[in-house]
Amino acid sequence: MDYIKELDIRLDKEHYYAGEVLSGKVVIHTIENFKLKSIRLLLRGKAHVEWKVFVSGDKRTVKDDQLYIDERAVIWGERAGEGLDVTVPVLIRGQHQFPFRFNIPETNLPCSFESRACYIRYFVKVTIDIPYASPPQGIKYFTIVGPHIDCMDEQYLKPVSAQDNTVRFWLCCAKGPVTLSCSLDRTAFCCGETVKLKTVIDNQGEKGVTLKARLVQFCEFLVERGVLRVTKEVQHLVLEHKGEPVASRDQQDTCASLRIPTVPTTLVGVSRLVQIYYTLTACLEFEDSKDDLHINFPITIGTVPFRIPNSNLQPHIGYEVAVDHVEGGIYIGPEFLLGEVYDGCNVSDNEYHDVAPLYRPVYLTVVRSSQQIAAGRAAGRGNRKKSSVDIEIVDIHRKRCSLSEEKA
Q1: Strands 291-301 and 188-189
Q2: How many other CB atoms sit within 10 Å of the CB of residue 44?
Q3: Helix runs in 318-366, H state only
Q4: Among 376, 369, 370, 373, which residue's Cα sits nearest to residue 391?
Q5: E strands in 332-401
Q6: Among 201, 191, 214, 297, which Cα is nearest to 255's?
Q7: Burial code of 260-288, b = ≥16 C-beta within 10 A, e = fewer?
Q8: CA distances from residue 277 to 180, 190, 274, 326 in whole angstroms, order as listed
Q9: What SS3 class is residue 382?
Q10: Which end of the chain is more exposed for a tag (fewer CB within 10 A), N or C?
Q11: What's the pTM?
Q12: What would the pLDDT profile of 313-357 be if each residue is shown by its tens digit?
């Protein structure tokens, strides 16, 4: 409308947890007096999946929705079915602020998520009901940090270990066994925390071996069509560690520290449309072949970080967008960009950093303080004095590769 100079929704913060109170205000700046029936608000959270499939040679679109939150409120004027015989009030010109509050349901809400095949979005929508005119509307998106996964739960604090071995042959003669043993202190981590993978390599073979560890993200999208189920699966390499070669007839004990970048939270059994989970794979690569020994550990990405019992040292919490080589960080919806169309593909590093989206979901990340960084560097120098093994974390951002591309 020409006489509405500004219509905006301002929230007290940009990210919320299930059970919290979402509060903010609707700001309206008008330059004329006009009749106004009501100002209505809608709080909604929903998931949407959509992609194309080939059925009998024809390309068809499969899609589905799931609703998590649907709350409504009237913050000014008449409610539906009321005031039918009352004169429509007039909103005088000037700047007006209308506060509002919503109670976010205390349920297991999935985290906000953006990808090409699926999105999970939470937003507040305002509608200005003006007689005999199209109602102006505004939408404000915000992030839900969820679901509630505490890394201190007993099921995640149990140490896990596994072992695999193989015997190499040459001309039907055994050349000695090669054994890989791995262990983890716990299986749940928040973004920014460090996974300490302890490994023991006993190489009694004739060839050298190299340890490689990969953290892989798996995403499954599902659409129910009657008795049929249509699925779409993607996977991405989150990070990779490569150790020093272990020579023949040698044994090596190492502890690889893998710092988890910002990625979407684990979603298993929370939404019927999308499942997100992670696997840490440790493998031995022989000089004359590819990966021959594999050990897989399921890793849970939580929303409540690990705390040291009976300690005053608490982790520093921050909120960051997901890295741009995993699902949830690769794609930016075109509706969140001004004056350009971006589909998340074939974008160089320089072009990617020039993109300024209106909204992107954020995820909980443990931020290391300057003291922790200094202590980590000191510990790293001490480890290099005691051992010749130097831990190397491959920079995935520069490689910009996925596990599926590597297999292809």
Answers
A1: parallel
A2: 16
A3: 349-354
A4: 376
A5: 363-367, 392-394
A6: 201
A7: bbbbbbbbeebbebbbbbbebbbbbbbee
A8: 25, 13, 10, 12
A9: helix
A10: C
A11: 0.84
A12: 889 999 999 999 999 999 999 889 876 554 555 444 445 455 678
